[in-house]
Amino acid sequence: MTEPSAHFLLAAAALSAAAALLHIACIAGGPDWYRALGAGEPMARMAASGSWYPAIVTAAISAVLLVWAAYALAGAGVLPRLPWMRVILCAITAVYVVRGLAFVPIMILMPGRSLVFWGWSSAICTGIGIVHVLGLRQAWASL
User: Residues 4-34: pLDDT tens digits?
Assistant: First the structure.
């Protein structure tokens, strides 16, 4: 049963699941999707050449995002309680917020993607991080 104070965690779960599905769609869509979603030309070229590397990396990211969605659903009371729920939900939140706000250092460490990609992906991660922060605050007592 959903906790009455868990609306933001439900939204956080939906956002992580949507991000996971977008990554899966990228695998299915192939090189053009890798390019359009900003994965970088090297990933698009590898996908075009039939390399499994882009699909494996993208599937791993999708799996992580689905686990994060499951933790948010558990925090909202939709799924059974998961191990270390408070700690892991705080860590997930931190990853989203740090990824969103630290786009300049990440951009330097991971060249080859456009400024548009870094701007949009950072804004999206910051937004999802804020939803997680609000969800943690809202549901903290029940976690």
Answer: 678 999 999 999 999 999 999 999 999 999 9
Q: Which of 50, 25, 49 is nearest to 36 (CA)?
A: 25
Give the integer Cα–Cα distance in Å for 32 and 50. Answer: 13
Task: Give the predicted TM-score (pTM) of the model.
Answer: 0.92
**Cβ neighbours for 78, distance < 8 A, ≥ 6 positions apart:** 2, 10, 13
The domain ranges of the chain are: 7-142
Question: What is the C-alpha to C-alpha distance for residues 143 and 136, in angstroms, rounded to an integer?
Answer: 8
27, 55 contact by CB (below 8 A):
yes
3-state secondary structure of 122: helix
The C-alpha atoms of residue 132 and residue 121 are separated, in whole angstroms, by: 16
**Structure-token pair, residue 107:** 């951009």
Q: How far is CA 71 from CA 52, 91, 122, in A?
A: 29, 11, 22
